[in-house]
Task: inverse folding
């Protein structure tokens, strides 16, 4: 599909409706421009929530988890002292 759009004096570009429909873009969606030489490709960025669970991750070792608990406790103590 070839569709033409114009760049405004402020450097803004309107994505034509046919392209928005083809990429299933809606208001608030983010897009990425990939530039290769003198060509640019517009792509829909992945919704991170759609990717949730796509990769299995092993559980963290207990000592690592306990370490983060200590970091959180220290942070809370520091913040409490700063509020006084």
Result:
């Amino acid at each position: 599909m070839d569709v033409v759009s114009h760049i405004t004096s402020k450097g803004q570009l309107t994505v034509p409706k046919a392209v928005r429909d083809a990429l299933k873009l809606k208001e608030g969606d983010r897009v990425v421009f990939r530039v290769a030489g003198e060509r640019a490709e517009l792509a829909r960025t992945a919704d991170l929530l759609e990717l949730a669970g796509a990769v299995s991750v092993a559980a963290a070792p207990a000592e690592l988890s306990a370490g983060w608990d200590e970091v959180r406790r220290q942070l809370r103590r520091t913040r409490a002292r700063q509020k006084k």
